Amino acid sequence: MVNIGVLISGGGTNLQALIDGVNSGTIKGKIRVVISNRKDAYGLERARKANIESIFIDPKGYSHEKYCNVLLEELKKRDVELVVLAGFLKILSREFVNEYKNRIINIHPSLIPSFSGQGYYGEKVHQAVLDYGVKYTGATVHFVDEGADTGPIILQEVVKVDNEDTVESLREKVLKVEHKILVEAVRLYCEGRLGLKGRKVIIDRE
Amino acid sequence: MVNIGVLISGGGTNLQALIDGVNSGTIKGKIRVVISNRKDAYGLERARKANIESIFIDPKGYSHEKYCNVLLEELKKRDVELVVLAGFLKILSREFVNEYKNRIINIHPSLIPSFSGQGYYGEKVHQAVLDYGVKYTGATVHFVDEGADTGPIILQEVVKVDNEDTVESLREKVLKVEHKILVEAVRLYCEGRLGLKGRKVIIDRE
Questions:
Q1: What residues contact B94, with CB distance under 8 A and at least 6 apart?
Q2: Is-catalytic flag, B108?
Q3: SS3 for B33?
Q4: Which residues of A touch B131 (CB under 8 A)?
Q5: What is the pLDDT of residues B136-148, one digit of tens each?
Q6: Distance between CA A86 and CA A18 in Å, rounded?
Q7: Residue of A nearest to B156 (CA)
Q8: Model confidence pTM above 0.90
Q9: Contact, A73 vs A93, CB < 8 A?
Q10: Which tens digit of pLDDT belongs to each residue from A53-80?
Q11: Is A135 close to B156, i.e. CB distance below 8 A?
Q12: B194: β partners
């Protein structure tokens, strides 16, 4: 059983998918703690309902580096082996990333490298997709490196963009796919099926 | 019947797809001329075999602007209404693009905006796709504007990247999709089914 820590900033439907994945036995892991950088994040409530320890850690008064160190401390205290960013709207410090090298998983609501990197988060991604006029978008689960959305890709899945799509309808379609591939990626990680060859993720599907 | 001019630099399998599309009656148009900026482009031979006028215009001795003007002249002389870039490895001048505004179609071997723009052409695209480790790539047909691969997208189609894929295998898979969506885009154009709303291409499928 892999000890999982989840970082969130918002509603946490991806967190809910993980909770369901653990409860159903799909994911051979245990969510030890959910940490939010926002007090009102509904994900904290979801964690509480699932009897998972949930903590709000206020970034106020901390430098960025220091805040990430506090997060690190809390995760290590609970023997967290895998960190999942489920809508966590903060870039992690280099030290944090090094400490959990290839053990931090992020979900991004586009087909990376399209519509990713600095400034592309939440609904801004879907707005950019609609403004550009691409015919396909999707979601990407990847390991986190020092860059913004630049780490090795674990899974991607494609979503068709229709003429009638709005930010809201696109968000919903992509979220469904996010839930699916995030749970799948964490499942594969917990079963030791993810290997790295350079920056390519090789999946052992046996 | 729309008068089509095709610009090429190489083997021209996309040109062949267009020739076949016209000959089968799928495309309600006529290829009036095929122009290459390389003397040894095999596409010139393909055109000859199909009894289409084919010309090599040597860029040597011309400035970029001037060369594009010569191309323009040759196309207009033949009443060309739609210009298709089928592996034409030259950026067109602003004047050329303005003259044929929203009447130039290009095919690119990736899911634009990923792996597109300056420096991404031919096999370099597939190499970059493999190096990055994305799980999906594809092809894009778009109208040409002043930028590199930045114009309004007409059609895209997705291709899965497998662990075993090489530049060569990816090239083949993507080429198949290129042929399909290029012919489809030209067909739609010739039937007057492509409309623009801002930079979004609206397809009238009736």
A1: B146
A2: yes
A3: strand
A4: 199
A5: 999 999 999 988 8
A6: 9
A7: A135
A8: yes
A9: no
A10: 999 999 999 999 999 999 999 999 999 9
A11: yes
A12: B203
